[in-house]
Structures are given as C-alpha cells and as structure tokens.
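re the bet — no i am not wrong, look at it urself. input seq straight from the record:
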Amino acid sequence: MKNIYVKDILRLTSGELIRGIEDTILNSFSTDTRLIQEKEVYLALKGQNFDGNLFYEEALKKGCSGCILSKDAKIDREVLNKYPNAFIVLVDDSLKCLQELAKYKRSLYNIPVIGITGSVGKTSTKDMVASVLAQKYKVLKTEGNFNNHIGLPLTILKLEDHEALVVEMGMNNLGEISLLSKIARPNLALITNIGTAHIGNLGSRENILKAKLEILDGMDEGTLIINNDNDLLHDVKDQIKPSIKVLTYGIHNPSDYMASHISLNDNGSTFEVLINKENHHFQVNVPGEAFVLNALAALMVGLQFNVSLEWIKEGILNFALSSKRMEIEKVKDITLIKDFYNANLDSMKSAISYLGSLKDTRKIAILGDMLELGSFSEKLHREVGKCVYENKIDLLITIGTEAKNIADECLKLGFNKNNLLAYDSIRDAYPHIKNIFKAKDTILFKASNGMNFQEIYSLVKGDL
C-alpha cells in the first residue's frame, strides 16, 4: 500500500493543521456524513447550495479519523475537544485539495490505468474491462456514477494494494474530461462512441468529439482504443499525436479487431474474433449488439496488459452490469427490461433495436424524456420515434412532454394510433396502462434518470 499522510495535504495545498499530527495516515475519504465510515477522512465540500463544513461534528461523532475543512469554516473548539484523536486541517479550496491528493496518490502507483469515456456504453464497457482485468489483477474501478470531478478523485483515493485501475470519465462541457485525465493519467484510453449526449451544452457532435478526446490530455504516451464503427471516431486518427498508439475495433468497418459470425439471442450473444490468424469464440451473457462491441473493447484491453485469451473469455462471460442498465427480469410470464439510469439517442436506439429483435413476444416500449438536449430535443426525440417505427414495436407508451415527439413521429410514419399512448407524467399514465399487460409481453422501460422511471417500473411490476 502506498500511504498518503496529513503532511501531504499541507504540502500540496498550503493547508493549516490546527489539531493532530502530520504523520497520520489518510485512509479512504468521504464527502457525505450520512455514509461516512469509522476511520475515514471527512472532506467538506462547499458549493452554491450546500456547505459540508456545517456537518463536521456529525463526521466526528461517527468516528472519522479527521476532517479537511475550509479556512472560513465556523469551528467550535468545545466540539473539537470532545474528539482529541481526530486531526483537523484547514484549506483554501477543499475540492482542489481532493483533486490534488488524488493526483498525488495516482503518482505513487506504476500500474495499468485505463480511462474510459464515450457518449453511451462507457459504464458497461468499464464493467466488462474491469471483469477481464480482474482475471489477472486486483482491480479498482469506478463505482456507480462516480465519474466526475468529485467521484473520480474519490475513486483514486481508494487505491490500496490494487494492481490495475479502471476509471470512467463523464462530462457535460468542454474542459471537464481534460481535468479528469490530468488527475488519473491513464496509460490506456478507450472511447466507446461519439453520440448526442450533452449536445444541448456543446452544440454539435464535433464538439462532443473534441471533449471526449480530452481523455488524452493526461497521457504523454500510451494507447488509444476506439470504436471504428462510429462515424466520427472512424476518421479521428489524424488528430492523435504520434506518441499515442491507436487501435480500432468494430463489426461493420475494417478494424484491428473485428467481431464476425455474430449470433444474437434473447439471453446474450456469441461471436468470433480473428487473433494471430486464428478464430476465437466468445460469449456475452447480456443481449444486444452493443455488448459485442463492449466485449471487443475489453478483449483489446486485456491483450494490451497480457491477460491470457482464456481468462479474457472468462471475464467477458462473467461480467455483471451496473444497476439500472439493461437489467432483465422475469415476473410470471412477462419480461421486464430496466434501462433508465440515463438516456440519449444512441442508448435509446440500442435498447429499442434489441426489443425489436425479439421473437414470439408482444414488444412494448415505455419511453420517457431524454434530458439535457437543449434546442436539439425535438429533433432527437423524433429520431427515437423513427427507430420505434422501424423496429416494429407493438405498443408504444410515452411519458413526458418531450417524449410526445416520439409518439408524434411514429404517427407521422404510419404507426397504428390504437397501439400508442402518450402522457405527461407517470401519475397520468399509470391508471390507464396498469391493466394492459398480458402473458408473454416484453416491456422496455427507458428514459433519463431524472424522469424517475423507477416509480413506473415498480408500479407495473407490483401489479403483475
């Protein structure tokens, strides 16, 4: 284990130690007193609408090893006296402190560090990459949605005796992934695709590409793996500095690693990849072509870090998806597909295409608003409507004001109006739809996380 100490805070941030000793080892960190564990360090973040400095006493009561607070924090000395073994450090900027500590912690480790980004598929790819690497290494990976300027540093600060690190990098605007890359300093970067997520902020897919390529800002050299089936990534090689080796994967465009003889079914997929002039067979236990692409990416990462092909196959076969992403559940004779952690055009199309590929079932799509699309919202929701129509979905239910554009586009294209229902909210929708489901239906629930589709999912499931 590579330790960091209180004295590192003082050195990196010009912090002031007002209680405790400089040689105290800093174990894991928490920014939430509701979740903090005994012996963790409480780091009080301060934003426009919250001030973590107000809760330091709660952290002390729960047995934290010490607190990192802002220099303007109002501290009660009588409170501190109750916890004489806890250190207290004051810093100018607690967020900057968090990031500097993570950057320093990363510098102590000479291990594979894989940075993953993309408009869609980055979380499932991260999970599969981590599963492959875990066949050989002790792996630390991003958990949940800890993929931003707070979550990524907190993940890095959990490094102990790990032998590989897999971090997901998300963004809303230009400059954000650059910051994350300079903290994590990956030696391998992976971009899953360039789609339309956050196009309302960035204005164009070209700007989204520019933002995703910031993942290289923390790399002096190394390897970039890209999805060659994506139109913008397909032409990106000329933009990459010579010290970065570019490798490609794909299904439809000639690539360094390609999937062939693909067999898609309700429970997963099988495919082959030509490696060293020999075809190798792979199996994924999550359905959809998107997961074949994820598996190709994970295969390539595994090969880059000398994981054997047999172990790579095991890692791909046994990986588990993060919660709320393409979770498939059987309730009586009805299949429920939960995929509402987030939504953008690409992930919507992928989920709808999978639903459309199913046989011997009535295919029902319950779709909600895609958020953060700005002036592009109507156009992109209509693209979803086109996808619903082309995939011959049997029954469409939309929930949300923007999602009505999905319904309207379907009607324009000739979708049977008797098989389409549109509502403003879950409260409006549920009384009308709760009795329409029947045996052998397959129901897809897909929307942005802010639409709270867990509620409609739970209501439907509870009444089956």
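see?? The mean pLDDT is 94. told u. also The radius of gyration is 24 Å. so pay up
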